Amino acid sequence: MSKSSKVLNLKDKLSGNEMDLSLCNLTEVPVRELAAFPKATVLDLSCNNISSLPPEFCNLTHLVKVDLSKNQLAGLPDDLGNLVYLQHLDLYNNKLSVLPVSFSHLRSLKWLDLKDNPLEPSLAKAAGDCLDEKQCKQCASKVLQHMRAIQEDVDHAKEKRLLREKELEKKKEAKQREREAREKDARKREKAEEKEKRRKEYNAQMAAVAAQEQQKKKKEEKKKRNGQAADKKVAVNTAPKPRRSIIGLMLKLLLLLLLGLAGAAAACRFTDLQKEAVCGTVNVVMDDGLSWAREQEGAMIQLVQNLSSMAKELLESTQASKN
Description:
Blueprint: H1 3-13, E1 14-15, E2 18-20, H2 31-34, E3 42-44, E4 65-67, E5 88-90, E6 111-113, H3 121-127, H4 133-237, H5 246-270, H6 277-295, H7 297-322
Parallel strand pairs: 2-3, 3-4, 4-5, 5-6
Antiparallel strand pairs: 1-2
Helix pairs in contact: 3-4, 5-6
């Protein structure tokens, strides 16, 4: 059957605001097609073989009256409470044992029939017999109260569960913070230890460098002292001898000459050479020299003193230049 024929057939089933799909041997509800008829606020699906309602059935919020009696329903959609305008619901002769918790949201519900369903005891007690209009209205009221109590229990359990989950989450977060704090402290300690290690290595390097510098300085000082001692030794060994003065040389020559003359005079006076003619000349020269020397005795003493002073000054100036 095509979509157009389905739409045409549904139109044939529509009378005013009532859509009659009873005794159509349906196994499922044509929700999509029904959604195209928002004016059909009354829906009769009784006497079919429907075993479940699709979740989309809860989107038919325009429904006011629904008859699902004499089907094979074993459960209802969880969001059935979305049908907030629903006033009349017939679930007679199905296979229901419980109702969805959202059933408590059907605030407009005034009439309910749950006869001939394998209801769980507390729900069956709340539903009652529903043998007439009054009992069906009481059934709607009492079942709503029962489902609201269940809703409160569910909400309370949900709240407790959420609180428990929240506490567990807090504990988890606290443990996470503690773990992060421990890890942070561990990283901080590791950094501090690493820094201390680097500081010790740096201090050791600086101490080694300082020791090397100190040793190098000592070697240089020792080398310098040794060099200075060597320089002093060399200076002592290589100190220039005072230059011989011309006067000194003249005095030496004069002394040698005098010694020679004295020797010749001694030879002429005390040896057999005194008979020689040369000795006569020597004796004459010696006598003249002695006479001259006696005459120049004062001048010679002054000359010797002057020479001594000059020699002393020369020696002092030489020592001063060494220092």
